[in-house]
Amino acid sequence: HELLDLLTRQKLALDFPNLDHTAFLNTASLGVWPQSTKAEIERYIDEWNNLHDSTPEVFDAWRESKAEIASMVGSGPSEIGWAFNTSHGLNIAAAGLDFEKNDEIILSDVEFPANTYVWTKLTDMGVKIKWLSSKNRCFDIDSFEEAISEKTKLFSISFVQFFNGFRNDIKRLGEICASHNIFYVVDGIQGVSNTPLDVKDCRIDLLACGAQKWLSSPVGCGFFYLSDDAKLEVGRTLAGWFGVDWKADWSNLLRHNLMPDKSAERFGLSAPSYIHIYAMLNSLKKINEIGAEKIGSHNRGLLDQVIEYLNSQDYYRLASDLREDHRSSILSFTCTNPAELQKYLMEHDVITSYREGLIRVAVHYYNSEDHIAMLLDCLNDFKTRA
Fold this sequence. Notes:
Elements: H1 6-15, E1 23-24, H2 35-49, H3 55-73, E2 80-83, H4 86-96, E3 104-108, H5 117-120, E4 128-132, H6 141-147, E5 152-158, H7 170-179, E6 183-187, E7 206-210, E8 222-226, H8 274-290, H9 292-311, E9 317-318, E10 330-334, H10 338-347, E11 350-351, E12 353-355, E13 358-362, H11 369-385
Parallel strand pairs: 1-11, 3-4, 3-5, 5-6, 6-7
Antiparallel strand pairs: 2-8, 7-8, 9-10, 10-13, 12-13
Helix pairs in contact: 2-8, 3-8, 9-11
């Protein structure tokens, strides 16, 4: 795996000066903002405080953001809608599909709860949940195929598992869902931007993704993709004035019989967060300028160094699947006292997460070999003290 070229890394160092002395290896929790994204937020605040109505510019920024997102995931811009977080996007399918009593939804027992509670709520109306037992804490496709029945209506899965970085074969899963006419939902938050994705090729019906992690944006913004060719129609259960087709004419608002927009915008309720749109657009541009393929290679190149170290140590044990098809930008490992290790790392400016008994390392395009060196030095010191 190749790291980003030197010039790109030098530019990123200027845009992320707060990473000079801190090894932030926790993007799977929250991403770091570029300085330029912070500047975009400040620009919007200044415009508002100067009594400038920036609404027209924000609509332009949202259209541009949709084009950036569409380019990132392989969709059309009209299939992209605003979401406050991943759960918001998932709820569009949960609330808008016509479920009947005894319809089945298949879920994995290692899913992040954002991708379970939205579906388990449907049991109130008689929908049944089929829980699939994981193998070695990873999703198993064979078990999925065996669980499908004529009542299976929806399947929802994470692009990348949150605690061990297992990357699911979402293309093969899409093919299986298509062959059984199952509505296919993907929680993309841990994979979008750091792993190439083509939602059309993977035959995804709905993809939901918060932007606060790998899209280097504030908490409270994200997007959903809803395919124009979705296997089942998703209806509107909530309605707002932003969900109808105004044809961008805000000079005549006393029209009360407009039809819902034909694009994903039909799920809009009211004005999205302007400040988030400015921030997200700037970060999206920076990420797309590099590209998911290069970012993924860079991230795995950094993690290769961690893997090499861990494999040479008896004290530490890897907990991530190292098969290339299942690798991601997340790597997890453990030891005798992982909670104490995570605290020790934090005290030495190495920021990781403690998840499901594991130390989770999540690297992104703004991380460098210096950050990995800080991590490995701490692991050596901790092992010596233990």
